[in-house]
Amino acid sequence: MKCRKCGATAAINMRQHKLALCADHFLEWVPEQTQRFVEKYKMFTLEDKILVAVSGGKDSLSLWDILNRLGYHADGLYIGLGIDGRRSPSGEGIGYSDESHRLAEAFAAERGLTLRVVEVEQTYGATIPELAVISNRGRDKPCSVCGLNKRYIMNRAAHDGGYTVLATGHNLDDEAAVLMQNTMNWAGGYLVRQAPVLEATQPGLARKVKPLCRFYEREMAAYAIVRGLDYIYDECPHAVGSTTIYYKEVLNQMEEHRPGAKLQFYLSFLQAKEQGLFALKPGDAELHACDKCGQPTTAPGPEGCSFCRLWDKVRAVKGARLPASAAITDPVEA
Amino acid sequence: MTVKLSYRNKEYEVPAGMTVRDALKKIGLQPETTLAVQDGKLMTDDTILKEGMKIKLVAVISGGLRP
A236 vs B62: CB contact, 8 Å cut-off? Predict the structure, then answer.
């Protein structure tokens, strides 16, 4: 197969676009398309101060690489989750968090970029897997407490660090899988909030954007490989067998038979939203400042937001090992 | 007349002369979720595999999909 632009041997064929490109033209095409999406969805401008959530995986490192190449002011945020990734009770860990941290640090150092780091255990007193066990949420699958902690820490780091926008590396497969899951459950509240840009509608909320939301996961993996980015292939061991991966698999079966199915599903959803198919009900997404940490929450009251309640529970179990001020410690460390 | 494929620390062998796409299907992988790399270079899935090639297969979905 030949590159449509120059006729050289193609490195990738994107069937949904009927477009094959060689390595050089693919490396040009991805940043060009990213810039197009940034402008189309009015994500940010060159004047913005962007914080990129970096996991050490292909999407987030590619996003940071692309924004840097496009000339944006983008710092990275790495959240150390303390995930070792032991495959069996007697097995050796794969050192998932240590390795992803190393790769994020190496990426930043090679390019002279600023990486901010929040280690969850050092800052708050327990690793994410410990937190899942102690709080009795998840246990073998700490994904829900992990998501809660990441959202909190990302929002707080962006807001407290004076960043005007928080960028995440969600690709189209991520978005389409979540969309399918929420559609299967008719989760209207989630559907109405899914978008390439989430505005900072309340004080304390960071503006959130997903510049890669129209690229297939396949394209982002290809970009990382062709660009020569050193990323963590295994990503999170707890993701194996997750619901999101199940929906990705289903969508990819559809894509196999009907190229463009995933793209059409997501874009038609965005169009339907624009035409008013989904709407917030009065009272939906009403946020208040948490009594304990001051971060926005839908659950006001003396017990605090779900993040504070979770860590209070951990403090009650682990006692003095945790710093008393854990919930209000500034999580951003340069 | 075989081609060696490696995927997540496992080795597979398929007959030379197949396309990357057919080879992926033969070992139970979705072409949509797997990239084929030879000597650090990406290959499109219509590429015909030749005798002696060593291909690294990369899962595009983080953490998932095992044959």
Answer: yes
**Interchain CB contact of A30 with B (< 8 Å):** no
Q: How far is B39 from chain A (nearest CA, A)?
A: 11
What is the model's pLDDT at position A210? 98
Domains and CATH numbers, chain B: 2-59 (3.10.20.30)
Q: Note the pLDDT tens digit of each residue in A7-22.
A: 999 999 999 999 999 9
**Residue A3, in any domain of the structure:** no
Looking at the partner chain, which of A222, A237, A256 has a beta carbon nearest the beta carbon of B32?
A256
Q: Do B65 and A221 lie within an 8 Å CB cutoff?
A: no
CB contact B30 to A (< 8 Å): yes
Q: Which residues of B touch A173 (CB under 8 A)?
A: 61
Indicate if A37 and A78 belong to the same structural domain.
yes
Nearest to A11 by CA among B43, B21, B48, B20: B43
Per the domain annotation, does A7 fall within a domain? Answer: no
- Per-residue pLDDT band at A289 (split at 50, 70, 90): confident
Same domain? A258 vs A298: no
**Does the CB of B18 have a partner CB in chain A at under 8 Å?**
no
pTM of the model: 0.91
Same domain, A222 and A173: yes
Same domain membership, residue A291 and residue A275: no
Q: What is the mean pLDDT of residues A52-76?
A: 97
For chain A, what is the mean pLDDT?
Answer: 88
Number of domains chain A contains: 2
In a domain, A11, yes or no: no
ipTM of the complex, rounded to two decimals: 0.93
Q: Is the pLDDT of residue A323 over 50?
A: no
A chain contacts of residue B66, beta-carbon cutoff 8 Å:
240
A92 touches chain B (CB under 8 A): no
- Residue A323 is assigned to a structural domain of this protein: yes
Segments forming the whole domain that contains residue A138 = 32-279
